[in-house]
Write a structure and sequence with these properties.
Elements (H helix, E strand, L loop, with lengths): L2 E7 L2 E12 L11 E7 L7 H17 L8 E11 L4 H15 L8 E8 L5 E3 L3 H6 L2 E8 L5 E8 L3 H32 L1
Parallel strand pairs: 3-4
Antiparallel strand pairs: 1-2, 2-4, 5-6, 5-7, 7-8
GO molecular function: DNA binding; RNA binding
Family: Belongs to the RNase PH family.
Protein name: Exosome complex component RRP46
Length: 195
């Protein structure tokens, strides 16, 4: 693999492996850009419906930032292996995906990060909820936020919330993103100062 790294958020951790750009199978080849494949492997058992839908969200997010036009007719595979899931798994996967793309030196139009918000029954917002807090929440929202202008690249919601509550969660997620992008910068700096 071009990149292999593990990313943890609280007690949730994901191992990301990035392979490629390699020659694409004819069936998957795209004439104008790289074909991007995202595989999400659960801690135990085989991937199910939930993993498939998360793979799609992860792929959409990565495709929005990878400058695949620089590698037409190639394939890039991102494999995410769940090591432990104690809540906020999708945002941990998003962060692992971005760090792997960055680590592999793929050209990106912007960085992105994932932030999960749990909306409690009383309307308070919890960032980076644990599995238990997710179970008690009225709604769980996960955003993929770009480092350029803090734009939303992807949003997914489970449960029910008002438009106003969704906007409050987004604002909280955009503020939290600043900390994550700072973490990216620090870890990249640490990695390169060692070599």
């Amino acid at each position: 693999p071009l990149s292999l790294l593990s990313v943890s958020s609280g007690d949730t951790s994901v191992l990301a492996g990035l392979y490629g750009p390699a020659e694409a199978k004819i069936s998957k080849e795209l004439p104008d850009r790289a074909a991007l494949e995202v595989l999400l492997r659960p801690k135990v058992g085989l991937p199910g419906v939930l993993e498939r839908s998360r793979e799609q969200l992860l792929r959409q997010t990565c495709e929005a930032v990878v400058l695949g036009v620089l590698h037409p007719r190639t394939a890039i595979s991102l494999v995410l292996q769940v090591l432990s899931d104690a809540g906020s798994l999708l945002s941990c996967c998003l962060n692992a995906a971005c760090m792997a793309l960055l680590d592999a030196g793929l050209p990106l139009s912007t960085l992105f990060c994932g932030v999960t918000c749990a909306l409690q029954p009383d309307g308070t917002i919890l960032l980076d909820p644990t599995a238990r807090q997710e179970q008690e929440a009225r709604a769980i929202l996960t955003f993929a936020i770009a480092s350029s202008e803090r734009k939303v690249l992807m949003a997914t919601t489970k449960g029910s919330c008002s438009v106003e509550e969704m906007q409050q969660c987004l604002a909280a997620a955009q503020r939290a993103a600043n900390t994550i992008f700072q973490f990216y910068r620090d870890s990249v700096r640490r990695r390169y100062s060692k070599s």
